[in-house]
Amino acid sequence: SEVKKIAVIAGDGIGPEVVGEALKVMKKTEELFGYQFEFEHGLFGGIAIDEKGTPLPQETLDICKKADAVLLGAVGGPKWDNNSKELRPETGLLGIRKALGLFSNIRPANVFDCLKEASTLKPEVLEGTDLIVVRELTGGIYFGEKFRREGANGEEAVDTCVYNVQEVERIVRQAFDIAMTRSKRLASVDKANVLETSRLWREVVNRIAPEYPEVELEHVLVDNCAMQLLRRPSSFDVIVTENMFGDILSDEAAMLTGSIGMLSSASLGEGSFGLYEPVHGSAPDIAGQGISNPIATVLSVALMFRLTFGYHEAAQVIEDAVKNVLDAGHRTGDIAVDKSTAIGTTAMGDLIVAAM
Amino acid sequence: SEVKKIAVIAGDGIGPEVVGEALKVMKKTEELFGYQFEFEHGLFGGIAIDEKGTPLPQETLDICKKADAVLLGAVGGPKWDNNSKELRPETGLLGIRKALGLFSNIRPANVFDCLKEASTLKPEVLEGTDLIVVRELTGGIYFGEKFRREGANGEEAVDTCVYNVQEVERIVRQAFDIAMTRSKRLASVDKANVLETSRLWREVVNRIAPEYPEVELEHVLVDNCAMQLLRRPSSFDVIVTENMFGDILSDEAAMLTGSIGMLSSASLGEGSFGLYEPVHGSAPDIAGQGISNPIATVLSVALMFRLTFGYHEAAQVIEDAVKNVLDAGHRTGDIAVDKSTAIGTTAMGDLIVAAM
Ligand SMILES: CC(C)[C@H](C(=O)O)[C@@H](O)C(=O)O
Ligand SMILES: CC(C)[C@H](C(=O)O)[C@@H](O)C(=O)O
């Protein structure tokens, strides 16, 4: 088959470790399915600040632009937390999203059987929870003009939240499309009783809705959504919302499943290009010890296979392998009930590869 | 003692019912403690739209301005949901906050023993949860300029989030002051890795912190806070944050306690003036049936006594009476495990008054 180019940006903290295991899994699929991957590595985040003086070097961006998909580990750490804005890992993250036109962040939040107990929610409330947050990723208050000025009452800071019709349309269409492949329920989250951008958002959603007569649509105010996620998580299927609300709600949703160390994510643009990364962060406290959990990154590869390459069979093989390894009782420290039996990062990766 | 003027704005849905019981409780304190209250009633919200053509009539505002404190029931309902902005109950709510200078919203989220089971969180996680969200209420994206315009890609909507140093200072000082009366832990929530207003916010917090050397301060990013509230609710004491984040987080915090029908709130300005209201909404589905739970509104009176009048003894009497009535097993329908034993709104109010 055709050679697929993968940009690999391992990043900081546990990023390189977990990405290493995901690469082993990808190589195994070359063997099993005859795929061909060409990996190009790029510096990104804190390590890029240290080595290149910027979180997102032009070479890295070029590697990503030439690639069919990007596999990202994680970025950030206390070392760079007090840097000025241009020298912070997050600035690289925002920069790469914008530069690659990744307007949509797909965050599945589902419950792993073996992790049910890890949630702080009662198991009966969590039962059947399997939702996806579709978050707009290149607009809103993240990217609007920001500045300081002298006001009537001294110094003031300003952030601007802007959305145009087209930006809302494309993310909303994508959310409807995803809902069509699932339980056909879509919750559009906004704050239309206060914000003008939310009123525009709701108008666009209502205009597009008739194109998807099979999808059951509800509008939910963001404060209410934060409550309903706790009250009735399993009643949600697809949630679509703007950038800032999506940041908050996707993390809340991930945490309530108790599976946060296992969750993958995709950031998509036009076409099939996508950036895939685990939801968990760079976990600087355990970096370099070989004890991190590579499963979220491995599952991010499965997501890449499905959404960018249409390699559904291989994606299924990866997902099944993860499930089998977990069912056999293997656990990294973060998900082990009895920590003394926990296995390391590479052992987990090897087991998954062996189970494929 | 001095006559205290109370503006009573019952509002919509169950508002009038629950406020009615709270007034009985206040009258009982006149008897017990020799207080003197003068009640002036004003129209507000949906009912004011229907009767006066505006959610916040000038007369109502005048009544509030002349009062020492305001007791508010609840506003809103499906009847007015599709009205234009100026004719919506929420617009009245935003208007009254701004007009009365209520820059601080105090939302205690604590667990009632009798309602532990009502939470979707595991009891052992919830154990000891007793936090207060201090939300900035008259600034930020709620009140910044909002408009539509033609952009390069068609119509766009704009909201502006603005904070000046003074606005941040007064709310942050208040939060530190509240923390000093409690466990002396303060979490300041922002999105300083993205927003300029958050960077200003954090600067101000860090500048004020040395004035309160006993308070243990942590800065928490809003997405992380949404997660930590779920993960370790009992580790929070006072949370202070800006308007939009506070809207979301205070509702999340309220819901996780399982006690949302029992929680009170205060909106404060400079000086001792305050507006007090239950956290629950107008519950149009059960309005007029006499089955609503008046406890949150009764506890809002206790909060008023403490924060505006310094009537601590009477506040304690009210809180103890509520506790005793609950301990004796009396429940309204919303909190009854066995619905067939539930009592109505006035019966609950009478029991509380009798227990005082
Ligand atoms: C690091 C930060 C800028 C980023 C965001 O807010 O988008 C992160 O929280 C995320 O969700 O990917
Ligand atoms: C009704 C709405 C405008 C209001 C707000 O967002 O402030 C409400 O959610 C609240 O928290 O009091």
From TrEMBL, chains A, B:
Residues 5-352 form the Isopropylmalate dehydrogenase-like domain. NAD(+) binds at residues 77-90. It is found in: Cytoplasm. It catalyses: (2R,3S)-3-isopropylmalate + NAD(+) = 4-methyl-2-oxopentanoate + CO2 + NADH. Binds 1 Mg(2+) or Mn(2+) ion per subunit. Mg(2+) binds at residues 223, 247, 251. Its EC number is 1.1.1.85. Keywords: Amino-acid biosynthesis, Branched-chain amino acid biosynthesis, Cytoplasm, Leucine biosynthesis, Magnesium, Manganese, Metal-binding, NAD, Oxidoreductase. SUPFAM superfamilies: Isocitrate/Isopropylmalate dehydrogenase-like. Pathway: Amino-acid biosynthesis; L-leucine biosynthesis; L-leucine from 3-methyl-2-oxobutanoate: step 3/4. Substrate binds at residues 97, 107, 135, 223. The record marks 142, 191 as: Important for catalysis. Its cofactor is Mg(2+); Mn(2+). InterPro entries: IsoCit/isopropylmalate_DH_CS, IsoPropMal-DH-like_dom, Isopropylmalate_DH. It comes from the Bacteria. The keyword Secreted does not apply. The keyword tRNA processing does not apply. Belongs to the isocitrate and isopropylmalate dehydrogenases family. LeuB type 1 subfamily. Catalyzes the oxidation of 3-carboxy-2-hydroxy-4-methylpentanoate (3-isopropylmalate) to 3-carboxy-4-methyl-2-oxopentanoate. The product decarboxylates to 4-methyl-2 oxopentanoate. Homodimer. NCBIfam families: leuB. This is 3-isopropylmalate dehydrogenase.
